[in-house]
From TrEMBL:
Protein name: DNA polymerase domain-containing protein
InterPro entries registered for this protein in UniProt: LigD_pol_dom, NHEJ_LigD
Alphabetized Pfam families for the sequence: LigD_Prim-Pol
Chain ranges of the DNA ligase D polymerase domain: 17-270
Superkingdom, taxonomy of origin: Bacteria
């Protein structure tokens, strides 16, 4: 897949070009692909660079028919074609069209009614420090562990962290919602100075919003190893829990540092993520009634 106009600048402050973005995705491809292949995936495109307005796109674009798509029933009941990358050439094809970020569903195209992972998106309000977010993520890991759920952590490349838990397919979106909502509300009730489980912006000051709303049919969250269209050209980066101790913030992981990190890594920071089969039985029992 050839990228035309590789010299086009997409990050004006850093001078990062479309060619650099393609080179980044080529360098991390084997790590990136498992997070997007065979999943409906929205892309965030910035054909004129991140200094100009970008846009989310869910549907295939003209001129990119080979990039992979799936026909699915939307929440409204309407059927539509969705982008659904199937290989490296899909990814580079989307970069050719100005894509910087990739946002998959938490379900596979062949099993759209069954999420295969859940995401707790920790969104810090004003005045919350990076250390506070790290502590909150660790606390969630411990709490999830108590109901038998192993979880994984990644930087988003933005302000927060994602705590991600793989599931057994066969969990329904309904179960997913009952659990994540119950869990988020329980934490917010117990520690109201620290957590909030409501989206209200004006109540977030000093607290961490546990955004559980990524876990519904059709919702997306950023893919692991996706570049972000943010200052610093940061990357959503899976970490080992112990890596959080030396992580100073999202700026540690960028278009420059992540390919080097991956070249040095021994083993997958999320080892076991794709083979772990967890169900929500115990977790639903403990938290669903908090609804
Ligand atoms: P941060 O750590 O800065 O919060 P984040 O990736 O978690 O980074 P959020 O703003 O918390 O960002 O989450 C927004 C999520 O909403 C994205 O991950 C994206 O997948 C999803 N989303 C779906 N549709 C849209 C849209 N049209 N515009 C923006 N985000 C969208
Ligand atoms: Mn977030
Ligand atoms: Mn959010």
């Amino acid at each position: 897949m050839v990228v035309t106009h590789p010299e086009r600048v997409l990050y004006p402050e850093l001078g990062i070009t479309k060619g650099d973005v393609a080179e980044y995705y080529r360098a991390v491809m084997e790590w990136f692909l498992p997070g997007v292949v065979d999943r409906p995936t929205s892309v965030l495109r910035f054909p004129d660079g991140i200094g100009e307005q970008g846009f989310f796109q869910k549907h295939p674009m003209r001129g990119l028919s080979h990039a992979g798509h799936v026909r699915l029933r939307e929440e409204s009941g309407k059927w539509a074609e969705y982008l659904c990358p199937n290989d490296a050439s899909s990814v580079i094809g989307l970069v050719q069209f100005g894509t910087i970020e990739f946002h998959p569903w938490g379900a596979r195209a062949n099993s759209l009614e069954e999420p295969d992972y859940l995401v707790f998106d920790l969104d810090p309000g004003q005045g919350v420090s990076w250390r506070d977010i790290v502590d909150a993520a660790r606390q969630m890991k411990r709490r999830l562990g108590k109901v038998g759920l192993d979880s994984f952590v990644r930087t988003t490349g933005g302000k927060g962290l994602h705590v991600v838990l793989p599931l057994h397919a066969a969990c329904t979106w309904d179960d997913a919602k009952h659990f994540v909502q119950g869990f988020a509300r329980t934490l917010a009730n117990e520690q109201p100075d620290r957590f909030i489980a409501k989206a209200a912006m004006d109540e977030r000051g000093g607290k961490i919003f546990i955004d559980y709303l990524r876990n519904s049919r059709g919702a997306t969250s950023v893919a692991s190893y996706s570049l972000r269209a943010r200052a610093g050209a940061t990357v959503a980066t899976p970490l080992r829990w112990q890596d959080l101790a030396k992580c100073k913030g999202p700026g540690d992981f960028t278009i420059d540092t992540v390919p080097r990190r991956l070249a040095r890594l021994r083993g997958d920071p999320w080892e076991g993520f794709t083979t772990l089969r967890q169900d929500l039985k115990q977790a639903l029992h403990a938290y669903a009634e908090a609804d």
